[in-house]
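Please annotate the following for my students:
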Amino acid sequence: MCAPSTLLLQLTTIGGTRQRGQPNVKVYAVVGVPPEIQAYAMAKYSRSAQSMLESIGELSTQRAEQFLDTFYFQYGHRSIADLAHLVLAVEDVSILAAVRVVDEPLWDGQERSTRYQPFKKTGYFTPPELEGEVAARYREAGDALFTAYDGLTADLLGLLVEVVPRPAELDPKGFERTLRARAFDVSRGLLPLATITSLGQITSARVLERQISRLLSDPLPEVQRIGEALRRACLEPAEEPYRNGGEPVRAAPTLVKYTQPSPYLIETRRELESLAGEAPRLLGPPDVGRAVELADDESPFDEAVATLLYRADPVGHSYRQVQAAVRAMPERRKREVLDLAVARRGRHDELLRELQVGYQLKFDILMDYGSFRDLHRHRRCVQVIQEPTPDHGVEPAADVFPRAFGAEVAKRALQTGLGERYDWALADGLTRVRELSADAPLAAPYLLPMATLARALFKMDAAQAIYMAELRTAPAGHFSYRRVAWEMYLALREHAPELAALARPADPTEVFDLLQR
């Protein structure tokens, strides 16, 4: 039975005038019950007149597992897994892997911030598969970026403290802390995607099941290992026992036990990438002239084909370029692409995310990876993410510094040579990535600096576009995503001025206060 010491209730009754014999409405919180027992107790509402408290009181872990085995796996009632929520920590992984971990639409969690924490102490991830001279080159490149990051952070902070007046009401520690965050906003661009980070997540067992299968199917070995570690964390007994005794706890021993790599995801990805490999020859070089483009209207059929090819594009063409290629395709060829996307789909496989079509607003965004990492947290939209590549390059300090610090402070920073150091470190980093790609194609992307431009397609409705425009243009935000969100707003204003008029964004080109947080 469920150990009484694990159950905490806050019981509230709703009174008022009621008919004779009619019970009071009861609302209570249930805390400390293992996730699968909680799922069982909630699922019993559809099959029993018992209260949840009564159901929990008579349950055992074994009985819950038997129930879930029957109804979840044999009868296919997958919604039961939505009732079990799990808290999991994923620590000491690379930023590149963390982005893939959190790439779930129904994901809630938090990751370490590059604005408020120095990453010098955490170091960076080195793929254990690397050996000998290749491993030495990898570490040399990682060390160079971290050295540049540490030095630039210190010198930018020193400059800001020197030139920004401290208000009398702001104490010296708070003043320096605020300016350090502004310095980090720029210097984080030098951090490689191998930088170690940590995150915590809260998901339902159904989302977790899909997440684990997706991670196990990822081409990166680090990501596969994270998927397996998440699986074990749910199946194996907790290392920390109950403080008050009781049987060992396993987070989700039943609901995720059958998670495996998905042949559908693995094979379909491989075949689509092979098909999209023709893109460089057919489309020419990628268009990197605009940070934000609102895609043209198209039929759902064309959108599905274009999104599939966009996601698999090996060199990162814009969505507009891919759209043009799809419009020129014969119907038979489009049908072949769509059929390929479902040919290997099994009975329990969900459709690919690329097939989520029909959205009125599709923003193709080319932004630095650090800002993509920030915008990636938005869940009320469909995100189709291209693989990171050094080929899109970076923005120069002459463009970055004025957005980060304002014209006057940026001028001082550039005059003192900080801009040259920033540009040189990034150019050197991208050169090392290209050189390493031939010998270690899976390891090389880890060394991409966070300032590297990356491309992703964000599909959404107008309400989400307005929400992002308002939230992400706020003066306290990072200068890079403020610009992206503002350009999204301008594109919306041109496309749907009546709806854009409802938004209240802040123009990032206006003078801003470096001390505003």
About this structure: Strands lie at 8-14, 25-31, 85-94, 108-111, 196-204, 292-294, 361-368, 382-385, 453-460.
